[in-house]
Design brief:
alpha/beta, 2 domains, Rossmann fold, about 325 residues, 10 helices, single chain
Length: about 325
């Protein structure tokens, strides 16, 4: 990434200049209050410029990866990625997948987080109906506070820690809320036992699109997953989830169509509705973890205000 190095090099002289000025003033004990303020203001300006440069570099790096991906796999939905409420580029990839299908506008997201950064918030703004589930009481209370409730015509927010003992009941009751069996989107990210839940989802819910978080550390053809542990919690290390190949092996009714460029989420489409997608080799679709590029630049803080407005209107 030569362009990244060039930009960082341009910032170094500014850093060194400020460091020299401040060091000289302190050594000679000649720094006045006004001079200290001037140097501090210069530092603040520099930090702001560094943040802008960092965001720009990250955005440019992502676009470069996306261009390369498109040149190799022109029909890969990951080439269309962008962010609204997703953590990275999942919103755009999902929109491209839905564009090629006939959606009934329904979804479930298990491990929805605090509601402000997930894969389905943007769908609700487009009139989808869905279910959010999360095991964190803090996350659920954050959503309740932001939306003024947990159950609406188009959204049911639920708190539960997902296990193999309760997943059947949770899926069944969620389908009853939606009032149909033909689910469009299921997003799953529980940082651990994902592969075992994905099997249930394939059998019980069989959504058109299934989004799963894979462990990008292990490239194909390595097929690997943690052993099922109902009490598993992620310890912020590499022991979590399953490799991409393991998901491909287990989800035999689905076609792998995309992995986002930061190497976090994989997108599968049910084979009986996948005629509008090109099947590429797993080794090509796989994206390695580029965690240094996660967290798209956001210049306005996300809020529940748009969603609250829409959900409130639908209640009337």
């Amino acid at each position: 990434m030569d362009f990244l190095h060039d930009r960082l090099k341009r910032m170094l002289p500014l850093v060194r200049s400020l460091d020299t000025q401040l060091g000289e003033k302190i050594r000679t004990e000649s720094v006045t209050h006004q001079e200290m303020l001037r140097i501090l203001h210069s530092c603040e300006s520099l930090l702001y410029r560094l943040c802008i440069e960092s965001d720009t570099c990250r955005r440019d790096a992502l676009e470069e990866h996306r261009r390369r991906l498109a040149s190799i796999m022109p029909d890969n939905p990951a080439a269309k990625g962008w962010k609204v409420f997703s953590q990275n580029d999942e919103d755009g990839i999902l929109q491209e997948c839905l564009r090629r299908l006939s959606p009934a506008k329904t979804f479930m997201e298990f491990c929805c987080g605090d509601g402000l950064e997930n894969n389905t918030h943007f769908l609700l703004l487009q009139g989808f109906r869905g279910v959010w589930l999360d095991g964190s009481q803090n996350n659920i209370e954050h959503i309740r506070t932001g939306l003024g409730g947990l159950k609406f015509n188009n959204l049911w927010v639920r708190q539960d820690f997902l296990t193999l003992d309760n997943i059947s009941d949770l899926l069944r009751s969620s389908l009853e809320f939606l009032g149909l069996d033909d689910l469009d989107v299921f997003s799953l990210d529980v940082d651990g036992n994902d592969i075992y839940f994905a099997e249930y989802i394939q059998e019980m819910v069989h959504p058109k699109i299934l989004i799963v978080e894979y462990n990008g550390k292990f490239p194909p053809p390595l097929s690997l997953s943690i052993e099922y542990n109902p009490e598993h919690t992620w310890q912020r290390d590499d022991f979590h989830g399953a490799s991409l190949q393991k998901f491909v092996d287990v989800l035999d009714r689905y076609m792998l169509v995309a992995c986002n460029v930061v190497g976090v989420n994989a997108f599968f489409v049910r084979k009986d509705v996948a005629s509008g997608f090109t099947e590429y080799p797993v080794e090509l679709v796989y994206q390695p973890p580029r965690l240094g590029l996660t967290g798209y630049p956001v210049y306005h803080a996300a809020s529940f205000k748009w969603l609250k407005q829409i959900l409130g209107r639908e209640q009337d």
